[in-house]
Specification:
This protein is α+β, with helices and mostly antiparallel strands. It is 33% helix and 27% strand. The protein has 12 helices and 21 strands. The chain has helices at residues 13-23, 51-56, 60-65, 101-115, 163-167, 232-235, 237-244, 248-257, 300-319, 325-349, 358-364, 380-390, and strands at residues 2-9, 30-32, 45-46, 69-71, 73-77, 84-87, 96-98, 118-120, 124-130, 136-142, 145-156, 172-174, 178-185, 197-203, 206-212, 218-225, 266-269, 273-275, 279-280, 283-285, 291-292. The strands form 4 sheets. Strands 1, 2, 8, 9, 10, 11, 19 and 20 form an 8-stranded mixed beta sheet that branches.
Length: 391
C-alpha cells in the first residue's frame, strides 16, 4: 500500500509538468504510468509560446543537451495552391522545438524525479473510488500484482480516455472523428540544407502534416475522419504512399528528405474532446484528459504542460483549504477552450477549395457529436455565444 497527498495517473507531458511543479513546491506526488517507455505520438513539435514555461521549469538546457532541434516557423498550403509561411524569427520568445519525443518525455520525468516526484512505471489503473474518510483509493495492476494507493487528491492525466474522471462521473463531449495516420522516413539528406519548418497541406479528404525530427527522420501524418479512412492504409504502406502522392508539396518534401519505405503506418486519435466537468471534490483532469485539441491548433503539448503547471497551484490551494481553488481552474480551462473553438472554426472555414467534400462540409457546418445524448453546435453564432458566456 502507498499513501501520498497527490497521485497523478498518467506520466505524459501534462502529468510530468504537474509533478514537476508540485515537487518544486514541497509536495512529492506519485505518478502512475501505464507504459514502460514513451509511446509514438503525432505532436512532435513545440511552438515558441512554450519557451517561457520551459525556462521557468528549468527544462530549456535539458532539451538542448538531448539533441532536440529548433523549429523556425510553419509553412502551410491552405486555402490556395501556394505555400505561405509564418516565420518565428520575429517573435519575442524565439524559435520553437522539433522533438525527439521519447527523449523529451524522459527529460521531463528526470527533472520531476530530481525535484522529489516518485515515478511508478507499468502501473495500470483498475479502479478509483472515494472512501468514507473522503480520501481516494486507487487499485492498480503493478509489476508484482495488485497494488493499492491512497491519496488526498487525484489528477487524471490519462489522455483522451479520461479514465479517472470517467470513473468519478464526468462525461466526454466528442466534437469530431479526426484521426492521424503517421509514418516516418529515414534520413537521406546527406548534408543538404536544413529544413526546420513544419508543413501543413490541405487535400480534398483532409490534410497532411510533416516535419523533420532529430536524427534526420521525417514524419508525415495524414489527417482525416476515421469513418472516411480506407483501412487498407493501415495494412499496406503502398496505400498510404498513394494518398501521400495526392499532397503535392508534402510528397516533394518526402522525395527530398525521406529515404526508402516509411515505417508501418500507425493510426493515432486526433479528435477534439472535452470533459463536461474538469474538476471535482479532490480531483481534476489535465492535458488531453480535460481538453484534447485538433492538432491543427498546435496546442497539444504546450497546452498540456501549461494546464499542468497552473493546476499545481490550484491543487496546493485546495489542499490548504481554499474551496474555490478548483473552480478557478475550471474557469481557466473554459476560457481557453472557448477561444480554441472560435479559432478552430475560422481556420477550417479558410479552406474552401473542397467545400462539397464530406470532410470539409463537416467542419464548415453545425454538426458535432458526443458520446452522451447531448448534441452541440459549432455555428459561428453559437461559438461566439459560448465564448462570451465564459469570459
Amino acid at each position: 500500500m502507498f499513501t501520498t497527498d497527490v497521485v497523478i495517473v498518467g506520466g505524459g507531458p501534462a502529468g510530468a509538468a504537474i509533478a514537476l511543479a508540485l515537487a518544486g513546491r514541497g509536495i512529492s506526488p506519485i505518478i502512475l504510468e501505464a507504459h514502460s517507455e514513451s509511446q509514438m505520438k503525432v505532436g512532435e513539435c513545440l511552438p515558441p509560446t512554450i519557451n517561457p514555461l520551459l525556462d521557468h521549469l528549468g527544462l530549456t538546457e535539458r532539451l538542448r543537451r538531448r539533441g532536440n532541434l529548433p523549429c523556425y516557423g510553419n509553412r502551410f498550403v491552405w486555402g490556395s495552391n501556394s505555400i505561405e509561411e509564418r516565420d518565428f524569427i520575429f517573435g519575442t520568445t524565439g524559435p520553437g522545438w522539433r522533438l525527439d519525443r521519447a527523449a523529451f518525455e524522459d527529460e521531463l520525468m528526470q527533472a520531476a524525479t530530481e525535484a522529489g516526484a516518485r515515478w511508478h512505471y507499468d502501473r495500470r489503473l483498475m479502479s478509483c473510488s472515494r472512501e468514507k474518510d473522503m480520501r481516494f483509493k486507487l487499485t492498480v495492476r503493478g509489476l508484482k500484482g495488485i497494488e493499492t494507493y491512497r491519496s488526498n487528491f487525484v489528477v487524471d492525466a490519462t489522455g483522451r480516455a479520461a479514465r479517472v474522471a470517467g470513473s468519478l462521473g464526468a462525461r466526454r463531449f466528442i466534437y469530431d472523428r479526426l484521426v492521424g495516420v503517421a509514418g516516418t522516413f529515414p534520413d537521406v539528406s546527406h548534408g543538404t540544407e536544413e529544413d526546420s519548418f513544419t508543413l501543413v497541406e490541405a487535400v480534398s479528404s483532409g490534410w497532411w502534416y510533416s516535419s523533420r525530427l532529430p536524427g534526420g527522420k521525417l514524419i508525415a501524418v495524414y489527417m482525416t475522419d476515421g469513418d472516411l479512412l480506407d483501412r487498407a492504409v493501415l495494412h499496406s504502406t503502398d496505400h498510404w504512399l498513394a494518398l501521400l502522392k495526392q499532397a503535392t508539396h508534402t510528397a516533394e518534401r518526402v522525395r527530398k528528405y525521406g529515404s526508402g519505405s516509411p515505417s508501418q503506418p500507425r493510426i493515432l486519435p486526433a479528435h477534439t474532446v472535452r470533459l463536461t466537468k474538469v474538476a471535482g471534490e479532490g480531483w481534476l483532469a489535465v492535458g488531453d484528459s480535460a481538453v484534447a485539441y485538433d492538432p491543427l491548433a498546435s496546442h497539444g503539448i504546450a497546452m498540456a504542460m501549461g494546464s499542468g503547471f497552473n493546476a499545481a497551484s490550484n491543487i496546493i490551494d485546495y489542499l490548504s483549504g481554499h474551496d474555490d481553488a478548483l473552480r478557478s481552474y475550471e474557469d481557466l480551462i473554459d476560457r481557453a477552450f472557448a477561444q480554441y473553438l472560435l479559432m478552430h472554426h475560422d481556420a477550417y472555414l479558410h479552406e474552401s477549395r473542397w467545400s462539397n467534400e464530406l470532410f470539409w462540409r463537416r467542419r464548415h457546418g453545425p454538426a458535432l457529436m458526443s458520446d452522451s445524448d447531448t448534441r452541440m453546435t459549432n455555428t459561428p453564432k453559437a461559438l461566439a455565444n459560448y465564448a462570451e458566456g465564459v469570459r
